[in-house]
Amino acid sequence: MRKGKDAIMRLLGKGEPVPYRQMLKALNVSRHERGRLDDMLDYLVETGEIAKLPGRIYTVAGAGDTLRGKLSTHRDGYGFVMPEDGGEDLFVPARYLTEYMNGDTVEAQVVSTRRDGKREGRILALVQRGVTEIVGRFEAVGKGGRVIPDDPKLGRDLFVTPGPAGGALKAKDGQIVLAAITSYPVGARPLEGRIIEVLGEANDPEVEVLTVIKKYELPHVFDEKVMAEAEQQPQQVTEEAIQGRVDLRQRQTVTIDGETARDFDDAVSVAREGDKIRLWVSIADVSHYVAEGSRLDTEAYLRGTSVYFPDRCIPMLPEQLSNGICSLNPQVDRLTMTAEMLFDSDGARVDQKFYTSVIKSAARLTYTTVKKVLVDQDAEAIETNRHLVADLKVMEELSLRLNAVRKGRGSIDFDLPEPQIILDLQGETTAIVRAERNLAHRIIEEFMLAANEAVAHFLETTPVPSLYRIHENPDPAKLQDLSEFVFGFGYIMKVVDEKVSPVALQKLLAEVIGKPEERLINEVLLRCMKQARYSAENLGHFGLAASSYTHFTSPIRRYPDLVVHRILKRVLSGKMKQADKDRLEARLPETGLHTSKRERVAMEAEREMVDLKKMQFMRDKIGEEYDGYITGVAPFGLFVELVDLFVEGMVPVATLPQDYYVHLEKSHALVGERSRAMYRIADKIRVKVAAVNEPRKQVEFALIGTLEKRPIEPVADVRNAYQRIPIKGKRPKPKRR
After folding, report:
1. What pTM was computed for the model?
2. What confidence tens digit (pLDDT) does each residue in 26-54 have?
3. C-alpha neighbours within 13 Å on the C-beta side of residue 703
């Protein structure tokens, strides 16, 4: 054997990728020398000097695929680069991330690809820093100190320069601060910065909200110029504004929302016409008050969406509009955009028209009130709303027809429980309950879906550039894994040309109803789904089994709806010129990308605020026992959601009964090699609250026992295919793969 690194690099330096077997021959490697070659190849791959391709083919560094994307790091040091152009994330080991941080945009190179198709790589260059400011808890050290980030993904503390320059004198030990980064980690130099704002004491509910706002950079204060523009808007509809609109004020129109809602952007009305039912969905005409290019419009675009916390809303528009002139309050005139649709006895849409209108809502109904009338048959509620009862019954009938149509074409409904946080006047969590979703919710949901779909179909067939709400087909690899997974339970899910029809998935969900594996298969199926987003290109909506879909019904709180309103109004008025189409084609792709990003940021902020309230609720529950379901499985532990409280926490793998555990990724399970004990997603278990780790925002559980038994996987057959996690004792040396 011609030994060493130099021989390998000379062979690969010829430019062509070299298969392992060809390398053995070219380097004259004997059977006894293969181990030394393997070790050298592994070393060169780890240092990034060469790349390992699928099929155990090697090439020089730089020859592998490169990509640009956003870095998402884990608290344990490793990370993933999410490609800007889509596709599978690239795993990056911790050793390549010493100078990079969560949120950075980077250029990365694929170093190796495993047999299962998952890629591993390293970062080549920094494109743009993702974090410039950090929110965290200040710890005083001498005349300086450090800031422990609120976001554990950042993985490192920020050191504050001593004295006035670093702002350390502003803060007291333990307070929450906002710090600006002055230098990023390079080599042995740590992350450094200065304190620019003291938010307050750690356990103050107001500070907790501010922490999330600052962390996610949520615009939450309207500047004076935006407020001045909002205050110029009238608070009553003028006769001039009504001119040219269809007058629906004599129609019995109602709003149906939650008890705490203050911004009402949709109102509905129905009429029976033989065996057909006519539906009017009237949506607040926000575009009448928010002119394109105005300061109000610019601010609304920047925010993208309203953000809802358990105790407050950060609105997209100032209250003068969101809760005032744009809100469809009862017994006052309001300007609207109406989608009028006629449905036959089978629920098919047979006619539609759209127009600007003026309405006067007859009543502000709540979901609870409508449920009392239609479901509970509550005598008092029926008497109080006797003038509305007939229409509510027609609405119920129409919603059932519309739902049947959606289900018939394969629309997928995940009716998963959602938590509702109950707070006291001081902002402390007093209870966590299951949010109710009753018939009234489904009525409004079906009507809004129908209006959104009708508007999308109209704009697509006009045709005119528009913004669509799209939901792409699930990832092919995940679909194949799902097909194999459900086959183990005796279900057939056909994947044809790397695709599956919504009807097939809906059929699968129907087949598992009431079965022990129902929750398990629902959870795994949900993980296959891609995230819905906004796009100028209509790619259809997989989850709704709709060929075209948009968002039209919430312009008070979603900017894409406002965009669609403007396009629709211009089309209806006959003012859509070719120059307007060209302008839309140029701008809409960026609008879709931006509003999708803002939606994701809002969702993450809302989720973190809810998780924080849940964690605080569990502070005094240490030692108490609960039933829960396993909601996720990882090599380092089990994620568990409590049945009654909807609180999620973790059972660390180190606390499970002593064993070596195999992580079966495709089976979503951990299996003990010796005991053969299996812990799988959706299994029901009994846990005890062990700790509340506030710095990590994590509730830790201890396993008491399993409540449901599962069939045992053939662990011995997959031993060499999955990572083994030792709990105690010396880990055996794994076989070379």
Report:
1. 0.84
2. 888 888 888 888 888 888 877 777 877 76
3. 24
